[in-house]
Design a protein that fits this description.
single chain, mainly alpha, Tyrosyl-Transfer RNA Synthetase, two-stranded parallel ribbon, 5 strands, binds adenosine monophosphate, binds tryptophan
């Protein structure tokens, strides 16, 4: 039996190798076995101040990145969140059963609202995890592949699904998060204590899938390392090099043991050179494909149109049940 899988990325920027390793690469793999929905969550992207023209360009860019990273529209449904209005509708309905206290505990909200001041944070930023729960629950999703930072949000989706089922009768499938062992959290190249993030102010912190070869090389050669030498995986004691090794593992398929053996007598400089070339070899072809889709967006738009139509049909069928259970309408 195939499971239903749902995941999404915000089109707030180009995507970096953290998004690729933590999300896209895993998606490309999981679509071989399951029935997958991969969404471009543009309504999540407007919970912080944004520029409309840039957002629209980024939606195209992220769609191109999905395809270039190996998401196959013959196997998976790829669509833009705002083109399926049932997401915001269910989001509102779930707001009526979500509790303020539950949302106040969300780490991402605390981080993002701290940056701009909690009292100035929008209600949308506060309610963001409820919209994410709606995304997931609309499609009877059982598996949600995400990076570690999203675990708390998937947990909320589970809580809301259970609460809804108890209150209104069995309606939603309880989803499970799916996290991988290495790479669930790729850290900044400049500070291994914070995750690699699209919005990092330090321009050397993240390698983007759209970066040119020489930029990739520069960023990796300037990555910080640990005080103690040696290419050894130890996330606690050697967080910087362990992070670089995790990236290397995902670019080459080599295990941590194999990497340690290969660089046994080598220094950080040699390892970083090898890592830069491994990233370039892996990311170069993806970057070329992204450009191809952007230069001729016909295929991209056809894919997104077809994805929207399939998602709309499933989402509306689910909403009919939900409205009915809640006693809405006539
Ligand atoms: P975001 O960049 O927050 O829109 O995240 C999109 C997807 O990439 C989510 O599944 C995240 O969990 C994942 N992700 C984001 N940053 C990282 C990171 N540094 N390491 C691993 N996965 C990440
Ligand atoms: N909140 C997620 C992020 O920032 C993106 C997202 C929105 C998502 N809806 C989702 C991920 C549903 C998985 C499932 O990364």
């Amino acid at each position: 039996m195939k499971d239903i899988v749902f995941s999404g990325v915000q089109p707030t920027h180009s995507l970096h190798i953290g998004n690729y390793i933590g999300a896209l690469k895993q998606w490309a793999h999981i679509q071989q076995q399951h029935h997958c929905y991969f969404c471009i969550v543009d309504e999540h992207a407007i919970t912080v101040p944004h520029d409309p023209t840039t957002l629209r360009q980024r939606i195209q860019l992220v769609a191109a990145i999905y395809l270039a990273a190996g998401i196959d529209p013959k196997k998976s449904i790829l669509f833009v969140q705002s083109e399926v209005p049932q997401h915001t509708e269910l989001g509102w309905l779930l707001m009526t059963i979500a509790k303020m206290g539950e949302l106040e505990r969300m780490t991402q909200y605390k981080d993002k609202s701290r940056k701009g001041g909690a009292s100035g944070a929008s209600l949308g930023l506060f309610g963001y995890p409820v919209l994410m729960a709606a995304d997931i629950l609309l499609y009877d999703t059982s598996i949600v592949p995400v990076g570690e930072d999203q675990l708390q949000h998937v947990e909320l989706a589970r809580v809301l699904a259970r609460r809804f089922n108890e209150r209104y009768g069995d309606t939603f499938v309880i989803p499970q998060p799916l996290i991988q062992q290495f790479g669930a959290r790729i850290m900044s190249l400049q500070d291994p204590s914070v995750k690699m993030s699209k919005s990092d102010e330090h321009e050397m912190a993240a390698v983007f899938l759209t970066d040119e070869d020489d930029v990739i090389r520069k960023k990796i050669m300037r990555a910080v390392t640990d005080s103690e030498a040696g290419i050894v995986y130890d996330a606690e004691k050697k967080p910087a090099v362990s992070n670089l090794m995790t990236i290397y593992h995902h670019m080459t398929g080599q295990t941590m043991k194999e990497i340690e053996a290969a660089f046994d007598d080598k220094g950080y400089g040699d390892f970083k050179k090898a890592l830069a070339e491994a990233v370039i070899t892996h990311v170069g072809p993806i970057r070329a494909k992204i450009q191809g889709y952007l230069d001729d967006p016909t295929e991209l738009n056809k894919t997104l149109d077809a994805g929207r139509d399939k998602a709309l049909a499933v989402a509306e069928a689910k909403m009919k049940i939900v409205r009915n259970k809640m006693g809405l309408g006539r």
